[in-house]
Amino acid sequence: LLTLPKERGWFVSHIYNYQGFWAIPRVIQGVIACQQQFQAQDSDIILVTTPKSGTTWLKSLLFVLVNRMKYPVIEQNHPLLVKNPHDLIPFLEIRLYVDGLVPNFASFTSPRLLSTHLPFASLPKSVQDSKTKLVYLCRNPKDTFISMWHFINNLRLHHKDIHPIEEKFESFCKGVSPYGPFWNHVLDYWKQSIEKPNKVLFLMYEEIKVQPKLQLKRLAEFLECPFSIEEENCGVIDEILRMCSFENLSNLEVNTNGKLSTEELENKAFFRKGEIGDWKNYFTTEMSEKLNYVIEQKFQGSGLRFSYI
Ligand code: A3P
């Protein structure tokens, strides 16, 4: 690790560049372990996200959608009501393979639901070579940045040291952020989703917010578990969306008072505002113009556009 390029920390220690993306040493160790050991199966479904893009929300939707026959949405003791979504769909590199753990997949039923923040090029080889499906989620970079800034300040509260927003913003614009550069991450999966539409589904937080039914149906079709006419008529889609809504999830006992089963992190850290456009409450005009410029440079010609409303 000492030979890797490093920058001042985004979390609690310095952040290093490994295979072209930035992460803290503990994460890099997990990444290496999972790259070396994880064996993907064709039936696996892996949710890939940029940090703070709505991972928790999509984990909930994915879990409820895929398991809707096993756990009907109306069940009082549905797992989503008693467990945090990160306990239901664990991260490969920051949960299953963290700290030298050797994960036991015996308790996973097929299809295995897993998640990661890894850039495409750094995915374990077996993921790329198998028929494993990848569901990708990103969010407009301004809200992503603000959500991340709040998140790390939350982690830092124990250290009583708030990160100046200007400093973190400059790093973000330089591409230095957890799993960043943000644009490399998004663009790589965007290209893959165009080249291999059966392997990679590209979703955006804002699109799910604005057209939740349509996006959930897209997800179900991509995963080859589309809603039947009867399900549509019985309001199953609405029920799933209601169950996974910010309001419902953030008010559950497990998410107001619980902690992740393997970490010190409080579950409530994953629920803040859940809106589009909170960046406007923090960005100066200069910051907004600067990031617009960077985004325009990086994404030009890609056909990809973010919504910032
Ligand atoms: P904000 O900080 O903007 O509120 P991640 O899950 O990738 O860590 O992303 C966290 C962001 O998703 C937070 O955004 C959080 O509030 C939001 N979020 C969590 N659950 C949500 C839900 N059910 N619906 C919409 N947004 C949600």
Automatic annotation (TrEMBL):
Domain Sulfotransferase as annotated: residue spans: 42-303
EC class of the enzyme, as a word: transferase
EC number: 2.8.2.-
InterPro entries the record matches: P-loop_NTPase, Sulfotransferase_dom
UniProt-recorded Gene Ontology molecular function terms: transferase activity
A family per Pfam: Sulfotransfer_1
Keywords from the named record: Transferase
Coiled-coil spans in chain: none
PANTHER family hit by this protein: SULFOTRANSFERASE SULT
Entry similarity comment: Belongs to the sulfotransferase 1 family.
Protein name per the record: Sulfotransferase
Lineage of source species: Eukaryota, Viridiplantae, Streptophyta, Embryophyta, Tracheophyta
